[in-house]
Amino acid sequence: MGGELAVAESDERAQFAVGTQTPEAEDATQSIGVWPARPVYAPVAARKLVLLAPLWQTWSAGIHAALSQESSRGTLFLWLPVLLGGGALAYFALPVEPPAYAVVSGLLALTLVAFLASGKPVLRVAALAALIVLLGLSCAKVETWRAATPMLGADVTTRLTARVVSIEPRANGRSRLTVDVVATERPHLRYAPERARLSARSIPDGLSPGDGVQGLVRLMTPSGPVRPHAYDFSFESYFDGLGAVGFFMREPERVEIDRPFGRAKWALSTLQGLRESLAERLRSRVGGAEGEVAAALITGMRGGIPEHYNEDLRRAGLAHVLAISGLHMALAAFTIIGAARLGFALFPGFSSRHPVRKYAAAVALLVCFFYLLVSGGGVAAQRSFLMLAVMLLALLFDRAALTMRNLAVAALIVIVTTPHEVVGPGFQMSFSATAALIAGYAAWNAHRAKRLSRKPYVERKGTARLVHLIFISIGGIALTSLIAGTATTLYGVWHFQRASPLALGANLAAMPVVSLVVMPSAVAAIATMPLNLDGWPLALMGWGISTVMGIARWFSEQTPFDATGAIPLSATLSLTAALAILTMTTTRLRLAALPFLVLGLILVSARGLPDVLVSEDARLVAVRAHDGALTVNRKRPNAFSLENWLRAAGTEVVRKPEVLRGAGTAALLARATTNHFLCNDAFCVLRHERGAIIAHVMKTELPTSRLLLHELCGATDLIVINDARIDRPCKAGRAQTITARTLARRGSAEIRLGHNGSDPSLIRIAFAISEPYRPWHEQRQFSRAARGLGPYKRTRKTSGKPDKNS
Length: 806
Fold this sequence. Notes:
Layout: H1 2-20, H2 23-32, H3 43-72, H4 75-93, H5 100-116, H6 121-147, E1 156-169, E2 175-185, E3 195-200, E4 212-220, H7 233-240, E5 244-248, E6 253-255, H8 263-286, H9 288-299, H10 307-316, H11 326-345, H12 348-353, H13 356-374, H14 379-396, H15 403-417, H16 425-454, H17 462-496, H18 503-528, H19 535-558, H20 569-584, H21 593-605, E7 612-614, E8 621-624, E9 630-632, H22 639-649, E10 654-655, E11 658-659, H23 665-670, E12 678-679, E13 683-687, E14 693-697, H24 702-715, E15 718-721, E16 736-739, H25 740-746, E17 749-752, E18 764-767, E19 797-798, E20 801-802
Parallel strand pairs: 3-5, 9-10, 11-12, 14-15, 15-16
Antiparallel strand pairs: 1-2, 1-4, 2-3, 4-5, 4-6, 7-8, 7-17, 8-9, 12-13, 13-14, 17-18, 19-20
């Protein structure tokens, strides 16, 4: 009965459709088999829907099939570190510190939603993804709470007693000491840092980690970024446990410290002593700058490498050679495995009865762990060791090792243990390069397998085989350099504002020397060092390093200007999303990266560079001219800040100020030019090409400063005042002002002028640090400048009369 009613209803619908459709729509409906959604009064819309319906169904079915295929391949697991790292990034980007109760409440709420949404897969997946992101944020918050590094609030000179943690020679002949503070006196610091990094012109002979030192030091609080979104020394110091930086004002003295030395600190001190002894042996045996590079390749101590060597490597695109990463760890492991297998081959009876392949893998694992410890355990070294350990352990237990899964496991471990590394260039460049290489070679192998399935492999012999092997090796190096270089260029531009256009050629020339000479000889040197037979391996290693540096120098000289200019954060995030999708998906879902890629490129091309840059100490101001050059207000600007600003502005041209001694305020303002700053004894002035007049006040004697500032407020549009005691000298609607107090509290600034530069209301100022402070910036509020105080002046009493400076 039900079936007859259904047939009748179907016939009735068919008759209705035939009676109300045009012949064309009727034919389309019959051919496609879809019930029309629109009657005769909208035949065009009905025809469009009828034609689009199968396309939508096909597209939807394809997406579901691709998602199912990705799930079966384990791709979903690869997104765990991405979401976890995204949560850590979100935590460090928050303008305020999230309260613990809010984080815990969010975790409980999302867990409950994921549990209750078992019948709604889309909602459950969204809840689980949000839960993982919040877990990443929680890991970052826990790390911040665990660090709790006491940071020096204001610069001070004191007599310090400390225990040496590490000693690193510098290229300029000085030594950099990391010390644990034991005591301070004259003055005694109530809130002294626990650890500081100090430089010294010379140190006592035989000084080693664990020894005590004492001396007069100048302690300074770690500085903030030199511009917004630049490298934050205060952030890194907080998580490295460094509460202050500074220098010994005289040579430190060796002293005995009665404070007990814990076992953990003793072990770390012993390891550091081993690192420094090994580095010193490498420097003495290899000699020269090559010895410093050898020490960097094995121990990770790079402070002694001359700066021009570092610059040649950066410009040539070979700076990654100095970073202990997957290349070094893999070459060390393969060298050990090859040597072990060759040694076992000398004993065929033993080799036939035992799994010598596993023995070689176990030895390589131990050697790589030793390499990790000796190298200092950087992020790239940690990632490399973790991936290599997973693969070698899989070999030991006869399991298959999925390379991308190994990378995800390594990323998870790094993010959970040290979430702050997510925001650093080491983590981003290391993992992006490795992910791109894995994905790129997987795609190449799939293409090669498909090609071989159509065309059988032909074995080559003799010379043809040798030539083929050479071309394959060159092609492999070129492909590796191209893939890794493309993936890391984004983060090199974001963090350092530089790229290496000739990196492909430099890597083709240098990497065979590194792979076949430098690293194998380094392994041989370490293996023979206990027998004092490391002379010939180190000589070979020195020759290889010299060859690599010669290649770097040549390519550096041929490289055009490598500064790229700063790119916006939105472009970096968009291109990062495109890179993640491209490397972690294996189906047509890779097309989802295209919108992010296009958006990122559009944002890069539409970027706007800042017009004015101001240092956090209020002493240096730079203005970008119409030809891209930077005009500065000081004859001898801070070299580090200026170098960073030049790269951010994408230029190499610097224009120094012209000093007009004795020139009055009115005369100087009348002669203001767009080419460079004009300065007298009190202030500098420059006229921007868009009409804005920018002034920097260097000296403000309080009795006479009011008149000067009154004149500048009425004649200029932007004033930077190098005095923390002055606050808001201009009335509303007049020139905008930035004082030393504001910069001390909120860090360096970058300024964008409006199209009408003479309108102060259109000036936009962005500071590097926001308030309320995060834990790694809380010490800024205690400096004298942040409290509106001038520089400290020591008072002296003579004959009962106060000093004139008191």
